[in-house]
Every structure is written in structure tokens, then in C-alpha cells.
């Protein structure tokens, strides 16, 4: 019996990963840049044994469906090839999310699983190799191997596509991210399906590709200079552009709900009142607001007033993957 356990934190992209160049290897169309956060994480234990006849996947004490287990099994198959073993595995995973608001993240989940497998099978992968492995499970997971600001270099093949931490001179420790959790009744378009549909059909997708490198360069410069305003402005417009591409897909779709718009408007009002803060959104209606720590309380208060205390969660910069003994 071989076992390993790891914890990985979720990350939020300031420059978004949106579209795959290669679906099987999960090579992205563009570089992305994220901030790893401390508020949401996954702990995963994996046990490989000759006595198991199938892979089993438990999430928060519940045995998962065949479909969910299949995704995990496909990832475990990659690991089994690397370790040259046929052993089946039991995967026991816990998501640590303050409320059940659809924030369970494939980024922290697949990163933790990759780390646990590395440990269990003694693969001795370094962080770069671990990032490449996590990428095969879910693209954004390759960024959760590292803490702080992280760039995923798109690369051109399996070897060259991985994330790395970018130097920031501790800038991330001055920042906070306020999560505004918005429940809506809409049926989700998964990020995987959403990005595929956008790449294949959106007339705005080329515009995304044409401008994302400039956004990335400006963001990296702003991080180096610790310019909060520029970081926020670039993040906000990059996120809006990503969401713009979905409106021109066929069939068109959006992740925004009326409450998402309400939260965006509140961010603009906060700025107008002299509190610099900026929003971004991912493949769902939640709004994430980047603010300097010195202004986090004012931003939290505004959203608690507009929504409710349970819908507002404060996060700070988090660390990379850790092995749990
Ligand atoms: C991101 N998202 O950069 C972007 C922004 C969603 C919107 O990475 O298909 O779950 O497993 O590679 O990593 C979510 O996509 O997709 C994501 P797969 P993943 O954070």
C-alpha cells in the first residue's frame, strides 16, 4: 500500500486562461497569470494498492459518480504510466470552502491530487514537473503548485507548458481579494465547454488573442513596480474581454447574472468614492474584488451591506502546494 497526502490552494487569474491549443495535453492558447489565495483549498489523500480493483473517488465523505471518477481515473492513468504501475487507487478529497457556494475548484483539487500522487508513488517530481502533471488534470491546476503571483507559460508541447512563480518583492502581501458569492439559478456552462465553444465559434476570439500578450506585459511591469492601480486596471479589462468573447459565441452565453452586474457597479462606486478596487470574474457569476489590505474593510462592508455577510469572503495571498505527513 502506497499513500501520500497534499494540500493545494485555489488561484484566481488576473490574466485569464481561455482556450486550448491542444485539448488532450491541455496546452493553452495564451499565457495566464494568477494569484494563489489562502481562503479556499483542497486536501487530498491517495492510496495505491494491489488489492483495489477499481479507482474510487471520495469528495467530502461522499463516493462520487462514475463521471466524476472517470476524470480522476484518466489523470491517475497518466500517473500510473509515469510510475510504471497498474495499482488502482482510492482518492479521498476534502474541499475547504467557507460556504457551499459553488466555489469548489478544479485548480486546487487537481493540484492536490498531483502532489499526493507524487508523494505516494515516490515520483520525486520537482515543482516544474509537478506543475506539468497537474496541468494534464486541469489547466489552471498547474498554477496552484506555486504561491503568490504565478505565470503559466503556454509553451508548445507537454515539456514546455508549465507555471512558475514570478518575482514580486512581496507585493502580494499588500493585497486582498474580496469574494462576492452570487447564487443564481442558471444552468452552468462548464469552463471546459465554454472555452471550447468560444474558440470554435466566437468572432471576438481573435480580438482576445490579439490583445492578451500586451495585457500580460503591462501586468508584469505593474507587479514589478508595485503599481496597484495599473494591476487592477489591467486585470479588470482582461477579465471583461474574456467575458466579451462568450457573447459572440454560437450559441452565445454569459456567466454574468444580474447580481454580478450589481457587484461590478458597486466596485465602480467604491472607486468613485476614493477607494481603489477592481473586479474580475471566472466561469460563474461570482465577483472577485482586488483591493489593497489597507482598504479591505471598506470594500467588505460595502458588499455585506449590498448582499449578506455569508456571501462575502476575504482572502489574502496563499502559498504553494504542501505535503501533509
Ligand atoms: C482561469 N478559468 O484562468 C480561467 C478563467 C476559468 C475562467 O482556468 O479544461 O478548470 O480543466 O483546463 O482549468 C478554468 O478552467 O479548465 C479556468 P480545464 P479549468 O482561471
UniProtKB/TrEMBL annotation:
> Which class of enzymes does this protein belong to?
lyase
Q: Enumerate the SUPFAM superfamilies for this protein.
A: GHMP Kinase, C-terminal domain, Ribosomal protein S5 domain 2-like
Extract one GO BP annotation from the record. Answer: isopentenyl diphosphate biosynthetic process, mevalonate pathway
What cellular-component terms does GO give this entry?
Answer: cytosol
Keywords on record: ATP-binding, Lipid biosynthesis, Lipid metabolism, Lyase, Nucleotide-binding
**What Gene3D superfamilies does the record point to?**
3.30.230.10, GHMP kinase, C-terminal domain
Q: Which residues form the Mvd1 C-terminal domain?
A: 179-311
UniProt xrefs under InterPro entries = GHMP_kinase_C_sf, Mev_decarb, Mev_diP_decarb, MVD-like_N, Mvd1_C, Ribosomal_Su5_D2-typ_SF, Ribsml_uS5_D2-typ_fold_subgr
Q: Which residues form the Diphosphomevalonate decarboxylase-like N-terminal domain?
A: 8-163
Concerning its family, UniProt says: Belongs to the diphosphomevalonate decarboxylase family.
Q: Which NCBIfam families match?
A: mevDPdecarb
**Protein name (record):** diphosphomevalonate decarboxylase
**Which species?**
Enterococcus mundtii
